[in-house]
């Protein structure tokens, strides 16, 4: 079978020596997952040099399940659902649109993520039927929405719910291919639609995570059906866990009055119904990607070397959980920081925190040209010429401090290949410029692939003054007229 995956990454400048190969080199074609190394020091009850290499737990802290929620659409009642969730120890993710620019503090996205107990997922800019759009418009809908939501919350967005659940057209197989490529180029790696992940010939295995949805009832809460489904999952847990270790409630935050109280009763019972890690979908997505891309090696000293993805590319900085058999491990530390250690069921779970240098961005902004408000002194621009395929990015560091750890990820619409290109640079001195350019090729024909606007986005991750930031620079070019 001819490979459907023409989305390749071009790494033009590869300067940092602090990276290691990813766990699965096939996945590097969709943009690299930057990794870094840590040394785990174990104090054990006897000889730590005899400890075998630990397993990687599928759920944080070695819990049996991740438990989350998924609520779609920019509906103000989401704030009532959130309050009911937090009263009952439930967490989760709200999937929002981004039709108009909003002031950050007043936005629903900002209010829903306040205190970090809940997160935001992508739901497209304007809630269209994506299969009816050209592939380039689908890409715009997914990535421009992600950029807007990240800027409103100053947090990464890694999970998507398709508007109307639409991602394919059975008469036109190219739609599923175009939507899948748009999804990956837009930087998502989690989707609430299970069959998009498990029955998708255009998606390489192991790249995208999903979950098991259980519906308590959007308008009328049907607790009986809900608990019957939960019991079914519990009875066949090992089968369900082949697909995902995350159970999540959904779909719409419509419950009000008595129904909201009934939903609260379901949540109250659910809280300790099983051995749960209560988390957002963003955290679960990050945890799964982390586990799939981490390598643990034993060192001669009896210590362990962990090569793991940088949290800023995962979307959340939850620790990694290592599982040792028995109770030999007394304590553990990494980078001089103590790890939490839990003993249960004749196993020991060690939660290894990220190094904060590779943590998630604390400030995120976007600009079409010039200076972003949140990063005065960073002046960037992006141009794209669809005739020649040339994309050019420039950055001037007019701040008072050196910029370090720069990673630039360029995403172009599906009309062009490769879809993602990346560049790295260890530092950019005060007053210096950084210019990079690449040429992408129009390898596809037909209205579906050529139509729509060409929206191009450059995501720059960096450390400024000791703080991790992210700056998007975008440009939009009208598409050429298809000639078929
Ligand atoms: Zn919706």
Provide the fold topology.
Layout: E1 9-11, E2 35-44, E3 55-56, E4 65-72, H1 78-87, E5 92-96, H2 108-113, E6 118-122, H3 135-153, E7 159-160, H4 173-185, E8 190-191, H5 194-198, E9 212-214, H6 223-235, H7 237-240, E10 246-249, H8 257-270, E11 276-278, H9 281-292, E12 295-298, E13 304-309, H10 311-314, E14 320-325, E15 329-334, E16 337-338, E17 340-344, E18 347-352, E19 363-367, E20 370-371, E21 378-385, E22 390-397, E23 403-411, E24 420-428, E25 433-439, H11 447-450, E26 454-464, E27 467-477
Helix pairs in contact: 1-8, 3-4
Q: Which overall shape is indicated by the principal axes computed on the Cα atoms?
A: globular
For the report, how would you describe the main beta sheet?
Answer: 6 strands, mixed
Q: What is the spatial order of strands in the main beta sheet?
A: 1-24-23-26-27-19
Q: Distance between termini?
A: 27 Å
- Name the CATH class of the largest domain: Alpha Beta
Count of separate DSSP helical elements: 11
Total number of strands: 27
Find the CATH topology of the largest domain: TIM Barrel
Describe this structure in words.
- The chain has 484 residues and is an alpha/beta fold.
- The protein has two domains: 9-32 and 361-477, Immunoglobulins (Immunoglobulin-like, Sandwich); 61-285, Alpha-Beta Barrel (TIM Barrel).
- The chain has helices at 78-87, 108-113, 135-153, 173-185, 194-198, 223-235, 237-240, 257-270, 281-292, 311-314, 447-450; strands spanning 9-11, 35-44, 55-56, 65-72, 92-96, 118-122, 159-160, 190-191, 212-214, 246-249, 276-278, 295-298, 304-309, 320-325, 329-334, 337-338, 340-344, 347-352, 363-367, 370-371, 378-385, 390-397, 403-411, 420-428, 433-439, 454-464, 467-477.
- Strands 1-24-23-26-27-19 form a six-stranded mixed sheet, with helices on one face. Strands 4, 5, 6, 9, 10 and 11 form a six-stranded parallel sheet that branches.
- Helix 1 (78-87) packs parallel to helix 8 and helix 3 (135-153) runs parallel beside helix 4.
- The chain is globular and about 65 Å long.
- Mean pLDDT is 92; it is low at 1-27.
């Amino acid at each position: 079978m001819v490979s459907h995956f023409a989305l390749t990454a071009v790494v033009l400048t590869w300067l940092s020596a602090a990276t290691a190969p990813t766990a699965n080199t096939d996945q590097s074609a969709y943009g690299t997952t930057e990794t870094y190394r840590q040394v785990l020091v174990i104090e054990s009850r006897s000889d730590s040099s005899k400890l075998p290499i630990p397993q990687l737990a599928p759920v944080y802290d070695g819990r049996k399940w991740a438990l989350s929620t998924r609520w779609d659409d920019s509906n103000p009642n989401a704030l009532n659902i959130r309050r009911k969730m937090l009263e009952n120890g439930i967490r989760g993710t709200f999937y929002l649109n981004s039709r108009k620019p909003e002031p950050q503090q007043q936005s629903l996205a900002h209010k829903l993520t306040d205190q970090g107990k809940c997160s935001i997922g992508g739901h497209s800019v304007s809630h269209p039927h994506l299969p009816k759009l050209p592939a380039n418009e689908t890409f715009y809908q997914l990535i421009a929405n992600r950029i807007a939501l990240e800027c409103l919350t100053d947090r990464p967005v890694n999970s998507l719910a398709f508007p109307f659940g639409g991602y394919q057209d059975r008469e036109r197989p190219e739609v599923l291919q175009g939507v899948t490529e748009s999804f990956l180029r837009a930087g998502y790696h989690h989707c609430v639609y299970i069959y998009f992940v498990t029955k998708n010939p255009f998606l390489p295995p192991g790249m995208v995570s999903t979950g098991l949805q259980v519906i308590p009832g959007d308008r009328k809460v049907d607790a009986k059906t809900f608990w019957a489904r939960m019991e079914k999952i519990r009875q066949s847990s090992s089968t369900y866990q082949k697909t995902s270790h995350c159970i999540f409630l959904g779909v719409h935050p419509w419950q009000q009055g008595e129904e909201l109280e009934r939903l609260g009763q379901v949540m109250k019972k659910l809280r300790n119904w099983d051995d749960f890690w209560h988390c957002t979908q963003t955290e679960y997505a990050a945890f799964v990607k982390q586990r799939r891309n981490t390598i643990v090696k034993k060192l001669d000293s009896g210590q362990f070397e962990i090569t793991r993805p940088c949290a800023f590319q995962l979307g959340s900085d939850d620790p990694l959980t290592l599982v040792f058999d028995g109770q030999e491990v007394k304590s553990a530390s990494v980078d001089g920081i103590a790890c939490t250690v839990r003993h249960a069921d004749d196993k020991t779970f060690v939660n290894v925190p990220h190094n904060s240098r590779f943590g998630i961005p604390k400030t995120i902004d976007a600009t079409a040209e010039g200076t972003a408000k949140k990063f005065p002194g960073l002046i960037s621009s992006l141009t794209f010429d669809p005739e020649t395929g040339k994309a050019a990015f420039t950055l001037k560091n007019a701040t008072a401090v050196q910029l370090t750890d720069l990673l630039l990820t360029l995403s172009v619409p599906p009309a062009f290949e490769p879809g993602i290109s990346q560049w790295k640079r260890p530092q950019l001195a005060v007053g210096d410029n950084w210019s990079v350019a690449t040429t992408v090729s129009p390898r596809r024909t037909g209205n579906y692939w050529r139509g729509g606007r060409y929206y191009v986005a450059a995501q720059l991750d960096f450390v400024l003054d000791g703080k991790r930031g992210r700056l998007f620079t975008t440009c939009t070019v009208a598409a050429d007229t298809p000639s078929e």
